[in-house]
Amino acid sequence: MVQAEPGIRNLLKLDFEPKVSKTIRKNFRQTVNQTLKTQLLPMADKQADKILQQYSHARAYVEETLQKEAEEKISSNRRSLTVVEQKIITYNSAVSSINNYLQALGLYEHLLPVIADTEKMQIPADVFVVDTDVELNVQANGSSLISNHR
Question: Is residue 24 a part of any domain in this protein?
């Protein structure tokens, strides 16, 4: 039997190799294509339908998330505005003290300007305070300048 093994292998090779080759060339591509069409395409269509059915839910979720983010941003902007208003009050207090001292010295031409009353200021609704680290600087000519520094 051990001696016949190479001959059996050769016979099987001669017999089956052409049949397998012919089957692969003729039937394999067709079988794969048929399997894709009958099995995978219907599953892909079902998955696409499931995704499309969830579209409205996903859109509602995104809208809700954006609404929450907008509310948080508005709240943050209001807190930032309060911080800026407090800094303006501090600045105006310091300027008032300096101006009182300058007036006591009779230096009326060197008085520093104050920032307008924050309660009377009209801030448009679409203006947002972005940075809470705001410094108030006084220019050489005495006018005030609000600048952001990080």
Answer: no
Could you give the 3-state DSSP secondary structure of residue 138? strand
**Tokens 């995104």, located at residue:** 62
* CA pair distance 127, 124, nearest whole angstrom: 6
User: Does residue 117 sit within a domain?
Assistant: yes
Q: Is the pTM of this model over 0.70?
A: no
In-domain check, residue 97 = yes
Q: What is the largest CA-CA distance in the chain?
A: 127
For the stretch 49-107, pLDDT in tens is 999 999 999 999 999 999 999 999 999 999 999 999 999 999 999 999 999 999 999 98
Q: In degrees, to the nearest 5, what angle opens at C-alpha 53 toward C-alphas 52 and 58?
A: 85
19-37 burial code (b ≥16 CB/10 A, e <16): eeeeeeeeeeeeeeeeeee
